[in-house]
Design goal:
The protein is mostly helical and 189 residues long. The protein has one domain. Helix content is 78%, strand content 0%. It is built from 7 helices and no strands. Helix 3 runs parallel beside helix 5 and helix 6 packs across helix 7. The protein starts with a helix and ends with a helix. 30% of the residues are buried.
Length: 189
C-alpha cells in the first residue's frame, strides 16, 4: 500500500512537471488499469496535504499578513475549502460539457499541478526573502502566476480533451472561486 502510494505520488509529480513544460504526454502517466481509477483519484488528494508546507511558507512570507495561529488556520481552511470546492465544481462542469468520463484523470492532473503551482509560488517569494530589488520579486511573481494559469489551462485541455476557450472558462471559474473562498475565509474572526 505504501509503495503504491509513493509510486502514485511520483507519477503525479512527474506528470505535473511534464505538463508544466508543455509535454502533453505527461498525462499518459495518469492512465490506470480498469478498476484502479478511483484509487488513483483518491491518492491524488495527497497533493493537498503535501501543499500545506508551501501554503504556510507563502503565508509567513507575506509581510503584511498576521502570523497568528488564527491567521494560519484560516490559510489552511482556505486551501481545504478551495481544493475540495473546485473538485465539486469541476465535476459538474465536466458533466455539463460531456466529459464526465475524463473528469477523474483531469482531477488527478489538477491535484498534482496544484501542488506544483504552490511550489512555483514559494520560488516566487525567494527574491524578496533574499533582499533582491523589488522589480526582481515582482517579475518572479508575474512569471509564477502566468505559468500557473497556463499550466492549469494546458492540463485542462489535455486531460479533459476540450478546446482552449472552454478550458479557459474552467480556469476562470477556478480563479473566481478561489477569490470567493478567500474572501469568505478572510471574513471569519
Amino acid at each position: 500500500m505504501i509503495a503504491g502510494g509513493l509510486a502514485g505520488i511520483g507519477n503525479g509529480v512527474q506528470a505535473a512537471w511534464m505538463l508544466a513544460r508543455g509535454h502533453a504526454n505527461g498525462a499518459a502517466l495518469l492512465h490506470t488499469e480498469a478498476g484502479s481509477e478511483g484509487a488513483m483519484l483518491r491518492n491524488s488528494f495527497w497533493a493537498a496535504a503535501l501543499a500545506v508546507p508551501a501554503a504556510l511558507c507563502l503565508a509567513l512570507a507575506d509581510a503584511q499578513a498576521s502570523h497568528s495561529a488564527h491567521a494560519l488556520a484560516r490559510v489552511l481552511l482556505n486551501g481545504a475549502a478551495g481544493w475540495a470546492g473546485f473538485a465539486v465544481i469541476s465535476h459538474r462542469f465536466a458533466g455539463q460539457v460531456g466529459r464526465a468520463g475524463q473528469w477523474p484523470r483531469f482531477m488527478v492532473a489538477w491535484n498534482w499541478c496544484n501542488l506544483l503551482q504552490y511550489m512555483m509560488g514559494v520560488a516566487a517569494v525567494l527574491p524578496d526573502l533574499f533582499g533582491l530589488p523589488v522589480v526582481v520579486g515582482e517579475t518572479a511573481w508575474l512569471v509564477a502566476l502566468g505559468w500557473s494559469i497556463w499550466l492549469e489551462w494546458f492540463a485542462t485541455t489535455v486531460t479533459l480533451a476540450i478546446a482552449g476557450p472552454l478550458a479557459a472558462m474552467l480556469v476562470l471559474i477556478d480563479l473566481l472561486f478561489g477569490v470567493a473562498v478567500q474572501a469568505a475565509v478572510s471574513g471569519l474572526n
